[in-house]
């Protein structure tokens, strides 16, 4: 593959190969003496049109741990603010001959469009409510390292599925790797088409979490709701917020995940987020390893790679 635009299009073997490479990168990332400069001389541009803490910083750290020259494009102070389009911005950056561009954009499909306009490798760091492939890969790596497998696990993805690129990428990846994925959400935060995809859906947390090995919580994405449905935080937490009581409906050894950023007291309580069953901090560490693996895999297909 020349680009990583989504989990859609990757085979189970592609996913497994990336997870195996990422597993090696965990140790490389932890130990300076194990680092090799597989991206030495390569130029990586991070182009984020939407805010990010985890994804942007971990792509920067991942690139630097592999020896790449990493440039973070400051979109807020760029000529995008003067009306330059996505395509013109891409063509301008492309003329500087980068090797890899990592893109986050608020419009679904924008990253695919950009990939057609540049000569380098493109990584989707989140496009609208469409896909966030490296998030799904880091979630899968975290699950595999803690449960020893993905196949056969019951994974409950809970909350604002409608607006979530994380949910979409995870659904595709986890189903491809043989997990039993369920969706738990209020009806108006569940895309109507998703029930037809064959994933069991629940509107009730007690039923949805019963027998779950992994409880994956999602942020309520109020910035994508256009005022059409903004539930009261108190009510939302009462019915869908993960607290110790709701977590007790899942298996006793169930593990809790959240891609971040978290809204404590909205979709998850602090004691669960910081509790013994939480993998949330580990997900962040796995984010660096997965991004190292993705950058290295793409660089190996570049000219002179
Ligand atoms: N999970 C995730 O994408 O976080 P950021 O928006 O902080 O990058």
Automatic annotation (TrEMBL):
Residues 2-144 form the Aspartate/ornithine carbamoyltransferase carbamoyl-P binding domain. Coiled coil: none annotated. One of its GO terms (cellular component) is cytosol. Its EC number is 2.1.3.2. Pathway: Pyrimidine metabolism; UMP biosynthesis via de novo pathway; (S)-dihydroorotate from bicarbonate: step 2/3. Pfam families: OTCace, OTCace_N. The keyword Transferase applies. Keywords: Pyrimidine biosynthesis, Transferase. It catalyses: carbamoyl phosphate + L-aspartate = N-carbamoyl-L-aspartate + phosphate + H(+). Residues 152-297 form the Aspartate/ornithine carbamoyltransferase Asp/Orn-binding domain. Carbamoyl phosphate binds at residues 54-55, 104, 132, 135, 260-261. It is an enzyme of class 2 (transferase). L-aspartate binds at residues 82, 165, 219. Heterododecamer (2C3:3R2) of six catalytic PyrB chains organized as two trimers (C3), and six regulatory PyrI chains organized as three dimers (R2). Belongs to the aspartate/ornithine carbamoyltransferase superfamily. ATCase family. Catalyzes the condensation of carbamoyl phosphate and aspartate to form carbamoyl aspartate and inorganic phosphate, the committed step in the de novo pyrimidine nucleotide biosynthesis pathway. Reversibly catalyzes the transfer of the carbamoyl group from carbamoyl phosphate (CP) to the N(epsilon) atom of ornithine (ORN) to produce L-citrulline. This is Aspartate carbamoyltransferase. It comes from Microvirga guangxiensis. The gene is pyrB.
């Amino acid at each position: 593959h020349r680009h990583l635009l989504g989990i859609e299009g990757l085979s189970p073997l592609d996913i497994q190969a990336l997870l195996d490479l990422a597993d090696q990168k965990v140790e490389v990332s932890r130990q300076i003496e194990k680092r090799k400069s597989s991206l030495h001389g390569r130029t990586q541009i991070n182009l984020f049109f939407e805010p990010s803490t985890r994804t942007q910083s971990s792509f920067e750290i991942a690139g630097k741990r592999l020896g790449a020259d990493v440039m973070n494009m400051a979109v807020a102070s760029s000529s995008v603010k003067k009306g330059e389009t996505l395509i013109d911005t891409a063509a301008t950056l492309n003329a500087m001959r980068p090797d890899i561009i990592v893109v986050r954009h608020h419009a679904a499909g924008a990253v695919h469009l950009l990939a057609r306009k540049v000569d380098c490798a493109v990584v989707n760091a989140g496009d609208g409510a469409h896909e966030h492939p490296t998030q799904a890969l880091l979630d899968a790596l975290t699950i595999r390292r803690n449960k020893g497998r993905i196949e056969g696990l019951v994974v409950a993805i809970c909350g604002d599925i409608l607006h979530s690129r994380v949910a979409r990428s995870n659904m595709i990846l986890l189903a491809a790797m043989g997990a039993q994925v369920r969706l738990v959400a209020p009806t108006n935060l569940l895309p109507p088409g998703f029930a037809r995809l064959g994933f069991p859906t629940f509107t009730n947390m007690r039923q949805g979490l019963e027998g779950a090995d992994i409880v994956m919580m999602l942020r309520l994405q109020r910035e994508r709701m256009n005022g059409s449905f903004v539930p009261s935080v108190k009510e939302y937490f009462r019915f869908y917020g993960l607290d110790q009581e709701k977590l007790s409906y899942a298996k006793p050894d169930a593990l809790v995940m959240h891609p971040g950023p978290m809204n404590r007291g909205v979709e998850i309580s602090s004691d669960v987020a910081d509790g013994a069953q939480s993998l949330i901090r580990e997900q962040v560490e796995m984010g660096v390893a997965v991004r190292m693996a993705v950058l290295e895999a793409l660089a190996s297909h570049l000219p002179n790679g």
